[in-house]
Design brief:
Layout lengths: L9 E4 L2 E4 L6 H7 L6 E2 L6 E2 L12 E4 L2 E5 L10 E4 L14
The structure holds FE2/S2 (inorganic) cluster (FES).
Length: about 100
């Protein structure tokens, strides 16, 4: 749980260390570091980040520890987590097939 995050806990975002406080979500940790967009839309390539902030709109998608399509606004930040921006032109994996 994020409440147990050690002092000085960090995740990485596209390889960049991002510190966070216990209880923060990935989206909150990114925003606190001034990172407000981390994916683009498929057609218009407009930037997206937090919008609803409650897990409803899916604007905040990221890849977390290799798991694509995770909502940053509801994903607890964890020490050592590998968070990556989403690229909409990359096909999603087909369940049961190797990536
Ligand atoms: S900001 Fe809407 S689902 Fe995350």
């Amino acid at each position: 749980m994020t409440e147990d995050a050690p002092a000085g806990a960090t995740l990485t975002f596209d390889g960049r260390p991002i510190p966070f406080r216990p209880g923060q979500t990935v989206g909150a940790a990114l925003t606190a570091q001034g990172i407000v967009s981390w994916r683009t839309t498929r057609r218009e390539h407009t930037e997206r980040g937090l919008f609803c902030g409650i897990g409803v709109c899916f604007d905040c998608l990221v890849t977390v520890d290799g798991q694509r399509v995770q909502r940053a606004c509801i994903t607890p930040a964890c020490d050592g987590q590998d968070v990556r921006s989403e690229h909409p032109d990359t096909a999603l994996p087909i369940p049961g097939e190797q990536a």
